[in-house]
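Example 9 (inverse folding). The structure is encoded as follows.
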């Protein structure tokens, strides 16, 4: 069986899950489900990042032992699986004993390649990004991603990774693999960043100042910095280095990440892999942010949307649908309750739900017993043509991770079916052939919906077997 590996980034456990990470993990879930449909054995990884300065400070603020704090928050992130109906089969924590062992072995391999050295340095540091910041990266003296935080001055002796050494190799990687980073605009962005020159980055912290981290091999005075530690999860989850068969079966794979992770995922991590003598990732897909009322979500602005509350109010599939249909896959997109309810009513209740209810009701009234019998004969060429077109457009869109366009293709078929009903008016002449055609189309719609709205897809297939028809999406 063909293998496919996909992973999200790991959110820090210093805060609750938000709609931005919800978007990322739902996008990854669609891809994982789609590849399973195509007959692949899929390894789908996610998890939580439990180390770093901002996590450590949060544990102090809440007066909890770091491991106790992380256990609480890891459980909350794990709860997303049921709430969002996710299909991942790996949930890694960077405090897992195997991950700790893998991160230390990864360190040793880079060190063996003479890519790790120690020096004193002084730098401006964004705790929100957990990254050093040059003056050119700051806007009016602050990180543009975390403008509410003042950059801190770090002055100490740390271990560094020879990032600059890999400038040419990274440029060669991007040149040889024009779809290594998607969308193309992000590939061009990381190319320009690399061409400007790379600077070695710190990969440790003094334990006396920040004790919460994985010990540096051979030096108890330091802990591994969060970016060096956490990125290794992408391979430690596959059993590396103890399970070479599973690692070689699935790696390299696809990474899904937000635009604020572009440098870390498509450049820093890739240079580290080369240093450790391992294959680079297969592909990196970069998505945008979810804003609220045109503003980036933040607790200070009071506009953070809780995915648990959203699902509780509207249901899992409506939340999945809005994020995948309304938010441009690789750009920022805006969430408002007004937009959400408009999409829900027009596309789900009035569009999909109404079509399924009408056709299933007519099928029961005309005593069409099973879907198999209804679709056994030849379909109307127009129905077959529209169905084939929807499938073709859908597959093309998903190949490019254009989730919204894949859904547009499905809703195009839904719209055609509505027009077909109005034209043929089967309730007047009890035309069983027309109902058969519509059942065929709906069965295809349900199949196409499976990666996106798995619960809805299952309900439609249940109704196609002449189960009692209930509204899929009542109006709100």
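The amino acid assigned to each position is listed next.
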């Amino acid at each position: 069986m063909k293998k496919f590996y996909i992973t999200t980034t790991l959110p820090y456990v210093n805060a609750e899950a938000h709609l931005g990470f919800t978007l990322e993990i739902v996008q990854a879930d669609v891809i994982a489900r789609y590849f399973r449909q195509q007959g692949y054995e899929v390894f789908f990884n996610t998890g939580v990042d439990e180390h770093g300065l901002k996590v450590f400070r949060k544990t102090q603020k809440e007066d909890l032992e770091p491991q106790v704090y992380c256990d609480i928050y890891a459980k909350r992130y794990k709860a997303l699986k049921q709430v969002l109906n996710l299909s991942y089969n790996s949930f890694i924590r960077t405090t897992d004993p195997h991950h700790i062992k893998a991160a230390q072995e990864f360190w040793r391999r880079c060190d063996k390649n003479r890519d790790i050295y120690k020096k004193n340095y002084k730098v401006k540091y964004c705790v929100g990004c957990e990254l050093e910041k040059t003056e050119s990266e700051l806007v009016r003296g602050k990180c543009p991603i975390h403008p509410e935080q003042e950059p801190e001055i770090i002055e100490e002796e740390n271990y560094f990774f020879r990032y600059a050494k890999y400038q040419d190799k990274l440029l060669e990687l991007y040149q040889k693999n024009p779809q290594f980073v998607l969308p193309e605009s992000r590939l061009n962005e990381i190319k320009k960043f690399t061409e400007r020159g790379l600077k070695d980055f710190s990969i440790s912290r003094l334990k006396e100042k920040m004790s919460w981290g994985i010990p540096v091999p051979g030096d108890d005075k330091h802990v591994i910095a969060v970016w060096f530690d956490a990125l290794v999860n992408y391979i430690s989850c596959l059993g590396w280095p103890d399970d070479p068969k599973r690692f070689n079966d699935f790696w390299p794979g696809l990474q899904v990440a937000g635009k604020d992770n572009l440098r870390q995922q498509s450049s820093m991590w890739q240079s580290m892999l080369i240093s450790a003598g391992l294959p680079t990732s297969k592909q990196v897909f970069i998505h945008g942010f979810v804003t609220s009322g045109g503003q980036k979500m933040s607790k200070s602005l009071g506009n953070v949307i809780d995915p648990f509350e959203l699902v509780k109010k509207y249901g899992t599939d409506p939340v999945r649908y809005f994020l995948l249909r309304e938010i441009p896959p690789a750009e920022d997109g805006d969430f408002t309750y007004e937009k959400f309810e408009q999409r829900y009513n027009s596309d789900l209740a009035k569009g999909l739900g109404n079509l399924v209810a009408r056709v299933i009701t007519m099928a029961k009234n005309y005593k069409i017993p099973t879907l198999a019998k209804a679709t056994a004969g030849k379909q109307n060429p127009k129905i077959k043509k529209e169905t084939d077109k929807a499938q073709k457009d859908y597959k093309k869109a998903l190949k490019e991770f254009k989730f919204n366009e894949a859904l547009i293709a499905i809703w195009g078929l839904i719209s055609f079916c509505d027009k077909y009903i109005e034209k043929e008016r089967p309730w007047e002449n009890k035309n069983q052939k027309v109902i058969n055609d519509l059942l065929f189309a709906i069965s295809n719609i349900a199949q196409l919906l499976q990666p996106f709205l798995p619960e809805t897809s299952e309900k439609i297939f249940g109704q196609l077997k002449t189960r009692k028809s209930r509204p899929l999406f009542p109006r709100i």
